[in-house]
Amino acid sequence: MKGKKILIIVENLPVPLDRRVWQEAQSLQAAGYRVSVICPRMKGYVKGYECIDGIHVYRHPMPKEARGIAQYLIEYSAALFWEFIYSLYVFMRRGFDVIQACNPPDLIFLVAFVFKIFAGRRFVFDHHDGNPEIWVAKGHRKGDAFYRALIFFERLSFRVADAVMTVNEPYRRISIRRGSVSPDRTFVVRNSPKIPSFDPADYPCPSDGRVVLGYLGVMGSQDGVENLLYSLDHIVRKRGRTDVLLKLMGTGPELESIRKKSAELGLDAYVHFTGWISGEDYIRHMNSCDICLNADDVSEYNNYCSPNKVYEYMFFSKPIVQFKMEENSFQAEGACVFANDNDYLDLAEKVLLLMNDPGLRDSLGKAGKKRFHQMFTWERSEAELFKAYARALAVK
């Protein structure tokens, strides 16, 4: 397969910020493929073109994140327009043998379909999220017209694909059941991070004596982060534990509303917003955490998700508190304490349990790190990535 040219299109995040897509691009490049990526321009990633580690990155204009149906239509239409224009440019300038489309949304197959029909190019669908489930998780009705449209476009993405990559087994089952993808065309490529070259122990973080609770990642409407403030309020006001600090590490569309809620609840002295962190700042902040939190509430969407943050918590040997669902139960088996479904006061009680038991924190953390190395290293996912591409390129 060496020398084959790949075009990856991702719409919801730029690269290299999108870790999954960037790791896929780096692995393919290192294996001898020639990789280009089309992604949106966003804050911090505004260059229209960069060549990073030999990977050609093209960033197109993008409207602000949509919040209503009309805005969704504008956002998706604009993105599709630019993705097609940039794809045509890459095709003429560098060429490609395969297009990989990364959802959400499930519309990028329309770009790939043009090149598949008229130029014989292959199509790999990288299924990151269940868009119909996201629609419901954002408060919309299951079965409405938009939901049915999402099902329709998801099914077309599966049908057009020469190979499908999913983030876990539940999503693989969706591709087989809902997308009618044959099992030999679908591959599980997890979002697990590469094993870093650093040793976390080499980056100690000074402590002020408080128990540090950590949340890492995106703060969107479906991520439940604002509800962690109610858990913290219970710990501080109702249970009188003022020796606590909640670190919110990341950013997202709900960040400002979370800041306002923290101020309304009078919790600013107990909350630290780090913003988006990387490099040594990321390592030191993660090292400083005594307990890590996954705020995803129990829903059909979250039931299928393998949160990236949980992999990272496990790598850093952190005990986890979260709600119990199908995939995260498998993912963090033996490394976490589960709270009652969507009960953020019970989540607070589970945090208090760990605050009062350093030995339990230590044993859960060690179990998580062991499971990460046994089950979820990027090298395992990389092997499936290569199988998916071999399958796509072998299609007659």
Account of the 3D structure:
The chain is α/β, with parallel strands linked by helices and 396 residues long. The chain has 15 helices and 14 strands. The strands form 2 sheets. An 8-stranded mixed β-sheet has the order 3-4-2-1-5-6-7-8, sandwiched between helices. A 6-stranded parallel β-sheet has the order 11-10-9-12-13-14, sandwiched between helices. 44% of the residues are buried. The model has no long low-confidence stretch (mean pLDDT 92).
Summarize the structure.
The chain has 396 residues and is an alpha/beta fold. The protein has helices at 19-30, 69-93, 109-119, 131-137, 145-160, 169-177, 225-238, 255-264, 279-288, 300-303, 308-315, 326-331, 344-355, 358-375, 378-394, and strands at 5-10, 34-40, 49-52, 55-60, 98-102, 122-127, 163-166, 186-188, 211-216, 244-249, 271-275, 291-293, 320-323, 336-339.
Task: Give the class from helix and strand content and strand pairing.
Answer: alpha/beta
Helicity level: 40-55%
Query: How far apart lie the N and C ends?
Result: 15 Å
Mean pLDDT: 92
Strand content: 15-25%
Count the E strands: 14
Helix-strand layout with pairing:
Blueprint lengths: L4 E6 L8 H12 L3 E7 L8 E4 L2 E6 L8 H25 L4 E5 L6 H11 L2 E6 L3 H7 L7 H16 L2 E4 L2 H9 L8 E3 L22 E6 L8 H14 L5 E6 L5 H10 L6 E5 L3 H10 L2 E3 L6 H4 L4 H8 L4 E4 L2 H6 L4 E4 L4 H12 L2 H18 L2 H17 L2
Parallel strand pairs: 1-2, 1-5, 2-4, 5-6, 6-7, 7-8, 9-10, 9-12, 10-11, 12-13, 13-14
Antiparallel strand pairs: 3-4
Helix pairs in contact: 1-15, 4-5, 7-13, 11-14
